[in-house]
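Archive entry: two folds, one per protein. Generate the first.
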Amino acid sequence: MSGRMMTRSSLSHHHPHHHNIIPPTLWLVLLMILSICNCLPIRLEFDDEDMLDLTYPFNNQTVYYPTMEQLGFTFQLGTVFRGLNKQQHYYSAYWFQAAEHGGTHVDAPSHNQINGTSVDRLPLGQLIGPVIVLDISQKAKRNVDYLITVEDLQQWEEKHGKMPKGGILLICSGWGQKWPNRNALFGTKNFPDDTSFHFPGLAPPAAKWLIKHRSLKAVGTDGPSVDSGPNQRQLPVHQLFSAAHVLIIEFVANVEKLPTVGATVIGLPMKIEGGSAAPLRLIGVNWRQRPTGGVTVDAEEEEEGGEGEEGRKNIASGVGSRRKHPSLNTSASSRPRPSSNVTATVVTRPTAAPMPRKISQKLKIPNNRAVINLRWNSGLPLFIIFPFLSLRLFRYAQL
């Protein structure tokens, strides 16, 4: 010091880390970049092989509820014109008719509630969510009228973790293997006599438990109904779910091919104004390579056997196997949760140019035809607080 008072400029000049200090202007540039990135869309792509069709085709074999069958309101497809027109151009057009409650379809709350929401007024996001598969196929083999209990649901959670909020529960009873045999599906030789039906479903206490303790968007089944065969006259589970605005999906195809957790289902019902139900196109997304709840697994880890011996055995067992990703922690806090801050849209496009292999594997983004665009709508974007941060940085830089 030699008795002299050091000025601010001389202090900064002699500061050992003077050259490592980031200039305030660079801080501002970085903040601006972060503000822009905070609002940029994220694009996830899926191959056709990563999308599973959970919908039965509509044709002359489509199974309808017996009331519809008795009245003759089954699926019919007629020809308006098919052939060469006057200009010698090929042209085809058809008409069809169908009842609401048949094939893969969704029941709206208005199906069992006087003032319930009709199918055309359902929120678009109510049929999009993480899938939860409850496999009761072995129990249903032993008891065709098996009722899913609260204990079944709790045991599922002990093994796989708490059901995610906003999830869609799909019941795998093994009944999908009976499609399109009406008598086998309804468990009777006297179709359409609904007093003779035998098939599994949910017990009313289990439905009440789901409504009270788990915020599910919908509950579906590969069978005719979420109510068991003997309960078709009273439909207690239908009444409970409709009152709670939990949607009901019936005759879901290929449920046995879905993983227990990790996939996402997307459903779009036909927009029938005032309808109590509608045909539903339902698909499972990422059913082969499940999302990891925000945890990214390096490609090198997977190539070196990151899935483990058990995972390799499951992969070898075929598409019907139910595999769980090793990095998918089943604790309630780690699994994906639906968020009102994230909006998603699905579009189609031609196959994209190949992405670098390492990046594609690391981000789980295969080159494909389907694209999901996610846009993060932050409640407090950085550009709003940008002036305040800038002021603080200027004051800090002057110290």
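Generate the second and append.
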Amino acid sequence: MSRRIGLAGLIALLAATAPALGAPPEDGTAQGAATATSRPTVVLVPMKLAGSTDGKGTAEVGVGVVATPSWWTDVNIGGVLTAKVDTPDGLATIIGVKDGEVEQPATWSFGVTLSLLYLPPRGPLPPEIRDGRESRAAAAYAVCAPRCRASSISPDDAPFCKARKEAIEHNAGEVLARRTQADDQRDQPAAFCKKAQAALTEADRDLASGKIDDKQHTDAKRAAFKSCLDACGTADEDMSFCAPVELDPAAIGEGKTCALARETIYKPYYESHATSRDIPRLYPPLLLKAGAQVGHAEFTYRTADDGAPSRLVEKIDPVTPWSGGISVASIPSWGRYATTIEGLVAYSSSWKASKKTARWCSPVGDVARDEDERDPADPAESCQEATLNGPTNTKKFRIAAQAGIVDGYHGVWRLAAGPELSVPVEDAEEEFSLGLRFPFYVSFASAPEKLSYHGIVRVAPSISFTRMKDGTKDIGGFIELAILGQRSLFSDQFDAL
């Protein structure tokens, strides 16, 4: 079986995984750029499954957290622990496929990444921007609210209707205290919904006749108020009661508005103001990451016996690869198409199996040339093959830079391009390797509500030029396909852009 997994296999893997991950994200504030007072602690569960046409494969999973420290509210500080397996023989090796007796061992590694996201205070908005946002929020609310009174709420409207009902319930305590004062329902005709009027009239009559006391009368009002409140956000709501209870329409947030408002109010505005600062910032202007990882691999090979140099014996060498580095991502602009600038510097110690192989055969009998056993026979052999000689260690610097653009409104896609230079510092066949990479990311799925998590496909064509120490040169082109599970289109790991 081939040691490399083909593009067709990767595409099939993507197709099999995608349907389980949900629907495209629409929340314009889920990537970490909310205001300091509204940034919750976020749990991260990054995942990665990648394969390249050069034969390499990677599977990775991690867990981490991002939080805003009380002593520095202009930043988010995060940490991620990851476990990863890399193989030079493609995803087929990761899922248990071997290629005869010759195996390039997989490397298991564990890493930690610390990150800092700078989120500068937004400050007061100019009056024209503030008024514009409020007017759009009010218009969107007017479009969406009636859809919550439908007998069947569509999936596109459900997030708005749920948020609206939660807003009503959030305000209920204050409104209830104000409306359950004596005679309050007579002074404010909309203090209770119409369906509760009969119960209120009966409670008033019972209080006047002495059948119930003041406490029981207040309890009856509370029960009537709750029955009215339960109907808000449903087809049975009484708008004369529910409307005064609700929050300011802008408080629900653009990210949870209904699909009709997004298409008829927000989308046309953002398309006509592609570079306006009025568009909320979806990504932080600066993301710093630093980390390290250490791994383990075992190389099995044949080498000369110390006591009998002409005899090859099997040996197993355990090795410990490691790496460390820092990376930075800057999104200095905002708007529909935001520019990105990224950089990475890493230093690593890695091990590579010998390219030489040893082959040996043992006789196993004869095989007749034809079906007639009286015909002449040829000797048959059973052959085996193994890696010859032990692995070699290489230490090198890796420097990469990228520039690109990102969808600053929905956070659905981003693309970039940039060079990558790899320079060994000792024990390497290469003098240097220079590549040019063109990654394209598209978010095709999002996690359930309140989880900042997305399913992302990354397609990354690249070309590379390698100069060997013996003067030979090698030029290659590769395509990497990856399925990523992470909170945004920017990686949470220190060694990835």
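Annotation attached to the second fold: The first helix runs from residue 7 to 17. The chain is about 20% helix and 40% strand.
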